[in-house]
Amino acid sequence: MKTHTLLMPLDMHLHLRDGVMLENVAPLSAYSFSGGLVMPNLVPPVDSLESLKAYKERIMATIPNDFFEPYMTLFYKNYDRKFLTGIAEHITAIKLYPAGITTNSEGGVSSFDIEEMRETLEAMSDLGIPLCVHGETDGFVMDREAEFMSVYELLAKNFPNLKIIMEHITTKAAVDMLDKYKNLYATITVHHLLLTLDDVIGGMMMPHNFCKPIAKRPEDLDALLSVALEAHPKVMFGSDSAPHSREKKESAGCAAGIFTAPIALQLLCEIFEQYNKLENLQAFVSDNAQNIYGICPEFKEVILEKRPFLVPKDYNGVVPMYSDKIINWAIQSIE
Ligand SMILES: NC(=O)N[C@@H](CC(=O)O)C(=O)O
Ligand SMILES: [Zn+2]
Ligand SMILES: [Zn+2]
């Protein structure tokens, strides 16, 4: 049987939620990943040292028997230097959301006035805290990410020593930015390596393929594949696994977010094998992130095997992408 081994897989964009949902999904990530960058968009957002520490403890309590590092993030506000100096050692990044643009982002940034942000972003540069960004404007839905490129350029030029991570990129426009500014990086999800808008609304409407940013055009998918399959050193895997209850997904007013954490590595193997690029998957799912963030995850070895795997209908009521469908790779063992 064909197998493929991955060492210390990392998921550098992960929603673990809170409460019962946290208890349900955190063990699924902890099973197959060494660590993940945990998003701060709880209600209310994680925006203080107290709430950050308490959230990390609640995460750790759900995974008593697994080695899994929750790399914590703080919800971006125009924090002052003193506050940032005190919190720097407790966080891996700060996550910026434009106000109202995605799930639980109401308290985000409503104006990208560089002068208003200068103190915070200069302090982050000096302290070596990366800035992760959900990069969408409030324009027409298919153009939101491309329109946001001017904001990335403004940030990259004004803060040349700030590491800026374009989160969950979905367009050729974003891919083209990677080689233009030395301080711009990106995460790519597994679903954006598989889906276009057709898979969301091209036939029957598919709520479990609906997320922000929405999947785009075939040429965008090709651009994402080109950098992911080569494991371009400035891109890394971030699932953006974003669980919502079945009720919130299968309803009028479907919540944005695709739940992929438990099937992400299997799907990545399938994609990379299909394009004969399995040898680059290790860099995409771990090595690049280690270099970009300067992190050293705990040892974990995940052996995957090529065999039909029926994706569960749901995980305690949370429906994954490709629910009840057969995919071609499965997890064989983990050490
Ligand atoms: N990606 C999504 O569609 N949803 C995410 C938020 C986000 O990452 O934008 C969520 O928290 O549900
Ligand atoms: Zn986002
Ligand atoms: Zn997200």
Automatic annotation (TrEMBL):
Q: Could you state a single Gene Ontology molecular function term?
A: dihydroorotase activity
Alphabetized Gene3D superfamilies for the sequence: Metal-dependent hydrolases
Keywords, alphabetical:
Hydrolase, Metal-binding, Pyrimidine biosynthesis, Zinc
**Amino-acid positions noted as binding Zn(2+) 2 in the UniProt annotation, renumbered to this chain:** K95, H134, H168
Q: What does the entry's cofactor note say about binding and number?
A: Binds 2 Zn(2+) ions per subunit.
Q: Which residues form the active site?
A: D240
Recorded superkingdom:
Bacteria
The biological processes this protein is annotated with in GO are: 'de novo' pyrimidine nucleobase biosynthetic process; 'de novo' UMP biosynthetic process
Q: Which residues bind substrate?
A: H15, L16, R17, N41, H134, H244, A256
Known catalysed reaction(s)? (S)-dihydroorotate + H2O = N-carbamoyl-L-aspartate + H(+)
Q: Where is the Amidohydrolase-related domain?
A: 105-294
GO cellular component annotations, sorted alphabetically? cytosol
**Where Zn(2+) 1 is bound, by residue?**
H13, H15, K95, D240
**Which InterPro entries would you find in this protein's record?**
Amidohydro-rel, DHOdimr, Dihydroorotase_CS, Metal_Hydrolase
Annotated metabolic or biological route of this protein? Pyrimidine metabolism; UMP biosynthesis via de novo pathway; (S)-dihydroorotate from bicarbonate: step 3/3
Q: What is its EC number?
A: 3.5.2.3
- UniProt modified residues of type N6-carboxylysine: K95
Which family does this protein fall into?
Belongs to the metallo-dependent hydrolases superfamily. DHOase family. Class II DHOase subfamily.
Summarize the protein's role.
Catalyzes the reversible cyclization of carbamoyl aspartate to dihydroorotate.
Assembly information from the UniProt record: Homodimer.
Q: What is this protein called?
A: Dihydroorotase
